[in-house]
Design goal:
Helix content is 41%, strand content 18%. With 282 residues, it is α+β, with helices and mostly antiparallel strands. The chain starts with a helix and ends with a strand.
Length: 282
């Protein structure tokens, strides 16, 4: 469907399609106030503005409840040990059992299911993310889940409007990559937290695991711009080296950086067990 075709739908049908993309009644109602949409960019921009600025906690929680619960062994086996994740490493029974337990622990702690944009992520990456995010506060998880939902909403826009033009979408405003200079290879499977100060306390607002190239290209939702401020990335280098049975002088590496506008900020880390450096990349 093209955006033009979508704009010709009756309002109730269009609203149902939008609701299926996000799962929040208030969000869908507010989106319909701007229907029809002049461009695909306008659709995405309004979706983010309404989601972050007009919706509240009850709306976010409503949206989260409309995700299918994939947390028991049966559903996880279908997703990660079957054909759904084509091109992604098949999960072992041990990993699936650990995922099921972590999902149950997450729901018990936070009172909601684990919300993550799972596209392209293996079961091992999902497990690592789950275990890491279990260490967060409820407020941090709400912020992270909000961002993950916006990523999912954009993906669902693309699935709904298969013939629309989404070429304008940029990468995450904040990106990173890790290079292990001791071996000259990407630092993969490193947990990274993006944090901002809220009421004087550092709070995690996004979280991810570096891929096989040492990168996290989707730390923030596309078209989401942070306000100019000071932010911090926390790299879990201790666990990275522990997995290699190596000692490191730096159990964590924290990098504070400033943003000045809506341009792209790339924050690389060059690391070895006894030293590290960083710079503003491109």
């Amino acid at each position: 469907m093209t955006l033009t075709a979508f704009n010709t739908l009756d309002k109730e049908t269009a609203k149902q399609h939008l609701f299926a993309c996000c799962g929040s009644t208030k969000w869908a109602d507010a989106m319909m106030q701007h229907f029809p949409f002049a461009t695909e960019k306008q659709l995405v921009d309004w979706s983010a503005s309404i989601w972050y600025d007009a919706c509240g906690e009850s709306d976010w929680l409503e949206s989260f409840t409309h995700h299918p619960k994939i947390g028991d062994v049966k559903s996880l086996t279908e997703k990660f040990a079957g054909k759904e994740q084509a091109g992604v490493a098949v999960a072992t029974a041990e990993t699936i059992d650990a995922l099921a337990k972590a999902n149950a622990d997450y729901e018990s702690k936070f009172g909601l299911i684990f919300i993550v944009c799972a596209t392209g992520k293996s079961a091992n990456e999902m497990l690592r993310l789950l275990l890491d995010r279990l260490q967060n506060t409820a407020a941090e998880e709400r912020n992270i889940a909000m961002g993950e939902q916006q990523k999912i909403t954009i993906i669902r826009f693309k699935k709904l409007l298969t013939e629309a033009d989404f070429e304008f979408l940029k990468v995450s405003q904040i990106t990173t990559h890790v290079l292990d200079t001791a071996v000259g290879l990407p630092g993969k499977d490193i947990s990274i937290r993006l944090q901002s100060k809220q009421n004087g306390i550092w709070q995690t607002i996004a979280q991810g695991i570096t891929n096989s190239d040492g990168r996290i290209p989707d730390l923030l939702p596309q078209e989401k711009n942070l306000k100019p401020d000071i932010y911090k990335m926390v790299f879990d280098t201790g666990n990275y080296y522990q997995q290699q049975n190596l000692k490191t002088f730096y159990p964590e590496v924290e990098i504070q950086f400033s943003t000045f506008d809506e341009s792209h900020y790339h924050v690389p880390l060059l690391v070895n067990p006894f030293g590290y450096s960083t710079y503003r990349g491109s």
